[in-house]
Here is the input.
Amino acid sequence: MEKRQASSFYQHFDIKEKPIVDRYVGFFNRFLFQNEPILTDFLNPREEYIFKEIVGGYGQVYEYGGYDKAEKKRLFLCDWTTPYSVQDFEIVCLEIEYNQKWDTITHSQILGVLTNLGVEINTFGDIISDGEGKWQFFVKKELTNFFAEQITKIGRTKVKIKKIDSQHILQVKDDSQEKEAISVSMRLDTVVSAVTNLSRSQVKTALANNNIKLNWHDAVESHIIINIGDVLSIQHFGRIKILDIIATKKGKMKIIYKIWQSKKR
Here is the structure.
């Protein structure tokens, strides 16, 4: 089999995803010609899709994010006969200890601390909570000590980071809701306006400020057409996933979507 060329995949993905395609094709060629399994960093669902499309049927791809229904996962690429276990993913769960009686911390505060440590965002996975003050997050095994040593405060709250075993991982509550909205078209700006009740000018400003992401990429062009399965992240509003699109008798579009609303501080 010939070495795969990244350029043969460019037409199938957004131009912004070219570096991702280049990297994953490199992984695939290493797997194919050096006969070694590949373990990725934590990937978001869009990155997972691209990776699997590049691999095709030439290998087995297992996925795990540290707990059931994880959004960000590490992928393990191997041949069809190689067995695997969750240990192969080299994921550690870290719990945040703090005085819950007097202090509170939020998802956005935790994410802010993690992204300001000087590490890539794909070195850690989901941040989860039981909804009652307990918080945990998942990291690459080799960075366990780094996160534990570097994180001593979140916001104004003093914290301690503790490694826990799989038996003590939190049960995550799905706080999403399924809703509907009517839009005159499936352009990105009209869809965002329909689900948020923002004016078109407000949406335009949000796009200009990079406050809207489409499939985990900054969205800057208002005329992009939104399709079933697309995920929109809107700062200060939440994240929505398009479940279905139905044309109405009046020529408009009924959008059925799932929303994870941003928590108010």
The chain has a mean pLDDT of 91. The two ends are 55 Å apart (CA to CA). The first strand starts at residue 38 and ends at 43.
